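Ticket 4471: requesting a sanity check on a complex prediction with KE4. Repro inputs:
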Amino acid sequence: MPDTTSRSLFERALRSIPGGVNSPVRAFRAVGGDPIFVQRAEGARLVGADGTAYIDYVGSWGPMILGHAHPDVVRAVQEAAVRGLSYGAPTELEVRFAERVKTLYPSIELLRCVSSGTEATMSAIRAARGFTKRDYIVKFEGCYHGHADHLLVKAGSGLATFGTPDSGGVPEGIAKTTLTLPFNDEGTLRALFTERGEHIAAVIVEPVVGNMGCVAPQPGFLESIIGVCRDHGAVSIFDEVMTGCRLAPGGAQEMFQLQPDMTTLGKIVGGGMPLAVYGGRSDIMSSISPLGSVYQAGTLSGNPVAVSAGLATLEHLVPALYDRLERLGQRLEDGLERAIAASGVTACVQRVGSMITVFFCDGPVRSWKDADRADRKRFAAFFGGMLRRGVYWPPAQFEAAFISGAHTEDDIDRTIEAAAQSLEALSDAD
Ligand code: KE4
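Returned structure tokens:
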């Protein structure tokens, strides 16, 4: 049944908010139809404005690894709030939080709290530029690191040519200091550094990509980033806003046993509240004001309510949680693969831990060039079929779906059944 309550809310929203949403992907532009307005969420369930409950695989785009409204996290927020919502002054909470993050991420010697993943990556890059006194940065096609100007850049015409803006409002002069390479291509990375290494301040990478859909690094690729940066005096930045605390308590760098020079964290680390982190080697982070010349600040940085939610969440990142996420992830992956085979639809499933994507193209998907072959229309039809069957899948092909500790085997089996019926409907439509 169409959700008429969401429809009327959307019509109202469109009169006050661009696109009716406060972040573009929520507008369902990639899948069609009206966005579902949410009235509440609990565990693995999201409840739409009309009261319909969905099995939720967006999880607020990653933060809700424990499930929505976890009682311990809610209680921590309530107890913090009655002590005051924000002070603009240091607290013991922030010291405890920083110490806890350093325990989970040994590569981080000093860190700063900020209020979003965008602020974290923007600040990490400014620190790298200030530390190296170099201007150029390198990112990879298909990776997203938030909406700071110098990160909204697409690959130039040739490989590693100057970037061009990938958004209105980004000056050419800023875009051209960002060089974009293909993910999982060690050769072009090494060639770029041979040619321009002494001008490159940093390389930033999603160590497991979520923002082109779930794409794993090929063996040796992440090591090559860390190595080539070390050899040329550049800074390696693992953007773990999505993978941090998701793939392991210590993120992808724990999973792959690697130590980048800097790390950004967000989403889970704040338990769903506006809290993110950038940090890394103390010689780099000592360039940050008031110690050094690199300025970075924030009214709500280290906000006590947000940090309380983060601390409460981090307490639950125990091995048993990740064992459960791996079991549920394997069950879902196997079931989706069976459903795709039975339907005859061209699609593949890619998963790392509790991040999973159904690509509507042949696999493997190892780069943006591979992912870009996906059939967007088929994905949109699949999404609509899942939604009608009570499953809230991410409303865009180039996103990862997330499993939480609140999902049950029964939720997974119901999701597989909904996918099988949605895929069957696709193949019937052919
Ligand atoms: P925020 O500024 O949205 O908190 O974080 C930016 C960011 C940075 N790095 C990575 C790896 C990220 O995935 C993100 C944000 N992720 C998107 C989902 N793909 C957030 C959802 C949205 O934009 O509404």
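Notes from triage: The chain has a mean pLDDT of 96. Leaving this open until the requester confirms.
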